[in-house]
Here is the input.
Amino acid sequence: MQEQSTSDIWSSISTCVKQALKESNVDPTTVGGIGFCATCSLTVFSDDTDEPISVSGPDFTKSDQNVILWLDHRAVEEAKIINATHDDVLKYVGGQMSVEMEIPKILWLKNHMPPDTFARCKFFDLADALTHMATKKQTRSYCSTVCKQGYLPKEAGTGQTGWRDDFFGAIGLGCLKDKKYSPLGGIEGHNGEYLSAGELVGSLSESAAKDMGLPAGIAVGSGVIDAYAGWIGTVGAKTGSSQPAKTDISESFSRLALVGGTSTCHLVMSKDPVFVNGVWGPYLDVLVPGMWMAEGGQSATGELLRYIIENHPAYKEASSLAKAEGDKSIYEYLNDHLAEMTRKVGAPSVSYIGRHFFFYGDLFGNRSPLADVRMTGSIIGLNTDQSVDNLALYYYGAMEFIALQTRHIVEAMNTSGHSIDSLYMSGSQCKNKVLMLLIATICGMPVVIPEYAGAAVVHGAAMLGAKAASGNASGNTEELWSIMARMSKPATLIQPGTDSVEKALFEVKYEVFLEQAHKQQLYRQKVDEAISSWN
Here is the structure.
């Protein structure tokens, strides 16, 4: 279980804002708008006092930890119950609701909290919670409710839209219907308001302004989940292409944003809904009214690399060597070590070093496109070597896996109707040239790295603030794409490798990757059938 406190998060945000104003010498009175982004973590407050309600069992009274982090998998059984309904709602979340979404977590709380405590709860995605703390408004974003809570906009074409009574009744949350869904934000047009990214929610309250060292009354825009802020902060980047650029949002339809960190989210916009098994969405209105978003993902990328490196027997030795070589990062050192290993054997490419090493790295379950939380890792090529060379091999294998799985996700999306032809990267992994070239070559499409790749999420949130600040007397704001085009900078382009032998090697590696995934599921099924009488 992973829990945090909104009080601590708010305090950290306030400190960062004050520090940023001071270091950049910005006059606080010149700040025109604020936009929040945050992980898709479930946040719980008291409906009557607006105070945090603890999500820490078993008695839920001993802390102000009111945030269940997105990666917390406590609600596996609740997710099974929800997915067993096969409701039409699930069609809009990739065919099944992930344990990482909010409704399974809410159902878990209902099943474990004292009934009177649960009855007092109201729920926000974390970005909406921060917007609420800033404005005192109950407004929710389409980004949080459509993407993570099973909210269906009116254009979804599924009969009843918004919060579906039959769905919530079937999964054991009919109590929310009795409250007209006010704990989730209410019914749109009656007791609830929902907005797309950056649309004007309200003004910064006196108390929130004091915390941040800002004047009250600053425009606050509807927030988004951090990955979606990453999309905003990357796909408007300019690549210097000689082809005439489109001037509207359709320019983004072929661009897949890979928003990387602990995990990686894969986001693309489309004019029409595209349904892809194992890929969340399609989601309507979450960023731009009338447009659809799809969200694939890998549950661990940065975390996978960290885990593989730090748990290898040669990690301490490699760390010491990295420090001795000009205080390199462990990643920079291992990339250089791989290059040296390649040179020593006279190989044409680093991929030759890992040619007979097959690493399948779903150590944290598979999010897309298998959508199988039970998936684990597997290795073909184990031996007794515990040297730094072997650590470098494992590290390379993990990077190759990340690239192969990216191809798996892209192919699933394009086969179903998307038209992705370029990858817009963000996050610290963009500094890893070996990984970026692997992704470009294995996926067979260019990787675009925006100028602010390391801060794409924050850059996207700033664009939300700019949109909120553009509001006129009627509350209407500038189009998001216009803001993205104006605030995005030129990008670095990494083209796929062109070596025909290496391409053939990667085709074989991709074939083995798919077999490793399929065989793992097949072996699990065979074992489950063999021991079925034990269950």
Summary: The mean pLDDT is 95.
